[in-house]
Amino acid sequence: MKRIAILTLFLAAQALAHHGWSEYDSGQPLELAGSIEESGYVHPHGLVKLKTADKTWTVVLAPPSRMQNRGLSQDMLAPGKRATAYGYPNRNNPGELRAERITIDGKTTELR
Predict the structure, then answer these.
(1) Model confidence pLDDT, tens digit, residues 9-61
(2) How far is C-alpha 94 from the chain's CA centre?
(3) 92 Cβ neighbours under 8 A, 6+ residues apart
(4) 108 or 6, which is more confident
């Protein structure tokens, strides 16, 4: 039941997250490193909850088809895995980052 609630939350977040990229500040790139707490491999964009030293970020990824084509499988986004994401913070939501690339298990995937 908890998994269904989490999936529902992710789907709702995805619907809200599909917005223009102008909401992200490309002049302030960030690199975040941490542990994946949760992930969603759903349309329109995948995402991970990345726990860093100071907080948990929502990291917006590419659409699942692009991630799959570039070698980033759903299994690679498993909770507990270490990841580094490089991207741009949301101007209005200080806990969200649009990832340009993500590195997991030493493999970097370009997302854009």
Answers:
(1) 555 555 454 556 789 999 999 999 999 999 999 999 999 999 999 999 999 99
(2) 14
(3) 23
(4) 108
Q: Could you tell me the CA-to-CA distances from 20 to 15, 16, 25, 28, 98 in Å, in that order?
A: 13, 11, 12, 17, 11
pLDDT of residue 21: 72
Cis amide bond preceding 63, omega within 30:
no
CATH number at residue 47: 2.40.50.140
Report the number of distinct structural domains present in the chain. 1
Domain hosting 6: range is: 2-110
In this predicted model, which residue has the larger pLDDT, 57 or 7? 57
CA pair distance 34, 18, nearest whole angstrom = 24
Q: Which long-range contacts (CB under 8 A, 24 or more apart) does 55-58 make?
A: 55/95, 56/95, 57/32, 57/85, 57/95, 57/96, 57/97, 58/13, 58/17, 58/93, 58/95, 58/96, 58/97
Residue 7 in tokens: 């999936």
